[in-house]
Design goal:
The complex is a heterodimer.
Chain A: E1 6-14, E2 20-29, E3 34-39, H1 45-52, E4 62-64, E5 67-68, H2 74-80, E6 81-84, H3 97-107, H4 112-125, H5 141-153, E7 159-163, H6 171-183, E8 187-192, H7 195-201, E9 204-209, E10 212-218, H8 219-224, H9 226-231
Parallel strand pairs in A: 3-8, 3-9, 6-7, 7-8
Antiparallel strand pairs in A: 1-2, 1-4, 4-5, 9-10
Helix pairs in contact in A: 3-4, 3-5, 4-5, 6-7
Chain B: H1 4-7, H2 15-18, H3 21-37, H4 43-60, H5 64-71, H6 74-81, H7 85-88, E1 93-99, E2 102-107, H8 108-133, H9 137-146, H10 151-180, H11 189-218, H12 235-259
Classes of the chains: A alpha/beta, B mainly alpha.
């Protein structure tokens, strides 16, 4: 049986102020799957995401691409996992879009010429060809989101985790983003409470409520069950 | 993040922008050293130095008003540092300033020294602003690293630069939010709101800066500046640099001959 791309096993996390963010969470994501992580605000989605890339205290109850998330594995894990932040402005910090997208490849010791080529290719794959010279903060919300995804795609990750990628987007930009995500050829874990968006780009859903897994099922199964959604704050 | 206020003109296509950042950095450092080493009262030399920087500015296509405005920020600092110089430098007395029982004498030598200090500070700062405005910050840090700036120092400078603009960004958002809600008549509403703003600003800037740092870390950031622009020093860069330094040295010699 192949190793799951992401596995949480009896995982719990309590913040320093005593807030219990997630409790006894167990689930796994197979390679190539597109999973929606849904739940109300504060249900623990972002906490789980931050543990996948070891932003919060690394924990061996979390396993990514066969590697436990411990300090010595972080470099390797971060090469395999692309993290798209909720606010794209957190992801875009260089002067131009091309520099932002090429930041990862340049840090992987790629030379400037190849990094630029990779950046152009990544921008093309998110429909932003010719945007390289643009100033990142002058982009529209949808373009910024696409650029943020391109920064991750440029690193050819095996797994992409996206924290609320549809927030702040208009319906058209949401549709375009959903079809873009659908076309990405890697394991995807997408958190959102935008159920239409999740319906359009995931195969399976993990429903969180107050830091616990409330339900797991196919996207259609979960989204059809209105009572379940209501009972879990959605 | 509006950190491009400094990088705003750094991408212009001009002969000055095309010069390798290492050459520009060394040339500017050499220029500043010569300016600083020029004796007091060599105003002819100062004029020639200023002409040299103005020439560079002209070829950089960066608006002169932008550079002038930014350069003026050094004046209060230069003024504060050299404020007592006219009073404490021995020399022929010019006039007395008295406040009650206190009186101080301004000497002509002191005044000359004061003028010279302010002029040198302004010219040096003008050159630095011209350099920063015609070179991307990332390229500048890369060049400094290549020229031997310790990596840790380069990290400190880079993050100071990034976080400064994160704070500016947060301040502008918070001030806007405050102004939109400050229409109710209250005693010192701005002052009351501003107190809260400072506290919230630190928390918000810290959180935003932390996320940016994570974003960099997750994309392999190791602390060493990276740049997309492949750099190589052209013979023309060396020629331009030598011409600039030569002109500055000639300015210094002219001053010495004039005062001999």
């Amino acid at each position: 049986m192949p190793e799951p791309a992401i596995r949480f096993e009896n995982f719990s996390h309590t913040y320093e102020d005593g807030t219990k963010a997630v409790e006894d969470v167990t689930f796994s994501v197979s390679a190539g799957e597109s999973i929606g992580l849904i739940g109300h605000n504060g249900s623990g989605k972002t906490t789980l995401f931050m543990h996948i890339v070891g932003i919060l205290e690394p924990d061996c109850c979390v396993n990514v691409c066969g590697l436990p998330v411990i300090k010595s594995n972080l470099k390797e894990i971060r090469k395999k996992v692309g993290y798209v932040f909720q606010d794209p402005r957190d992801q875009l910090f260089m002067s131009t879009v091309a520099e932002d997208v090429a930041f990862g490849p340049l840090n992987s010791d790629m030379d400037a010429h190849d990094a630029l080529h990779t950046a152009e290719h990544a921008l093309e794959s998110v429909g932003l060809e010719g945007f390289g010279h643009r100033i990142s903060y002058h982009l529209s919300g949808g373009e910024m989101r696409r650029a943020a995804i391109a920064t991750v795609l440029a690193m050819s990750p095996e797994v992409i985790v996206m924290d609320e990628p549809s927030s702040g987007l208009d319906p058209r930009a949401k549709r375009e983003l959903a079809s873009l995500i659908k076309g990405l050829d890697c394991t995807k874990l997408i958190s959102s409470h935008d159920l239409d968006f999740i319906r359009n780009c995931t195969d399976r859903i993990i429903l969180l409520n107050k830091g616990k897994v409330a339900a797991v099922g196919t996207t259609e199964e979960i989204l059809r069950d209105t009572e379940l959604l209501l009972a879990n704050g959605l | 993040m509006h950190h491009l206020h400094i990088d705003r003109f750094a991408g212009l296509p001009s002969p000055v922008h095309r010069i390798d950042p290492r050459v520009k950095l060394i040339t500017t450092l050499a220029f500043i050293i010569m300016v600083v080493l020029t004796p007091d009262g060599f105003f002819l030399s100062y004029g020639l130095y200023f002409a040299a920087v103005l020439t560079a500015l002209f070829f950089s296509n960066v608006p002169a008003s932008y550079i002038f405005k930014r350069s003026l920020t050094i004046i209060p600092f230069a003024f504060a540092i050299s404020f007592f110089v006219p009073f404490i430098t021995p020399g022929p007395s010019l006039f007395n300033i008295g406040f009650g029982s206190f009186s101080a004498t301004v000497t002509s030598t002191g005044l000359l020294k004061f003028g010279s200090l302010c002029s040198r500070a302004f010219i040096s700062f003008f050159a630095v602003i011209t350099l920063v405005s015609s070179t991307r910050f990332g390229d500048l840090m890369w060049a400094a690293g290549r020229l031997g700036l310790p990596a840790k120092l380069s990290i400190v400078v880079s993050f100071m630069y990034r976080y400064l603009f994160i704070m500016i960004d947060e301040v502008s958002h918070m001030i806007l939010a405050r102004d939109l809600r400050s229409h109710i008549k209250r005693k010192n509403p701005f002052l009351i709101a501003s107190g809260g703003i400072i506290g919230a600003l630190l928390v918000r800037s810290f959180e935003h800066a932390e996320k940016l740092y994570y974003a960099m870390l997750l994309r392999g950031y190791t602390g060493f500046p990276v740049t997309l622009n492949s750099k190589h020093i052209r013979p023309l860069d060396i020629v331009i640099s030598l011409l600039f330094i030569g002109f500055t040295a000639a300015g210094m010699l002219t001053g010495r001959l004039f005062h001999a």
